[in-house]
Amino acid sequence: MTTTQIEIEIERLEAFSKKGESYANTNGSFGWRNPIREDTGRILQGLVIASSPKRILEIGTAHGLSALYLVRGLSKQNHTTIDTIEFDAEVAADSQERFNALNVPVKVLTGEAMQVIDTLTGTYDLVFFDAQKSHYFQQLNLLLEKNLIGSGTVLLADNVIDRQEECQEFLDWFTSNAINHTVIPTDCGLLVATL
Length: 195
Prior knowledge:
By secondary structure, the protein is an alpha/beta fold.
């Protein structure tokens, strides 16, 4: 992987419409694919640099823009791996092909997020929530139940301002459990927390 190739691909993906697109997977589940904003991408990169995670989980791959910002934050020496979940098989295959061509350590896991999370093992040092907002709370609970996250895990979640109503139960969990967190007022709102 070269930084230049990644930057070129990020620039290409940044040009995609930020208005989003509605789509359905082969099982008929509907979703809304909306690329992260550039301000969020830079913050993701910085948080990876600051936390030096060994394993990252992203929930919501889409075309791979946010995963590439996560990759940009990686040190060449730390051998971090990134698992990212995408429920649309065609989009997942396209994104995996993109990551392979760039030779970056990203593996796309295809399927509904809850079903995929249920198959995972080990622990993650950083998790980025960016799929269906109303499912953030369920996903968080399953990650905790399966011990995929724990003390010291960095949790990030996009769209917690512009889609706050859908995220409210998720947001309330951090307050009610006295979890150290903040919401950065990006275009969409990015929650940053440490368990």
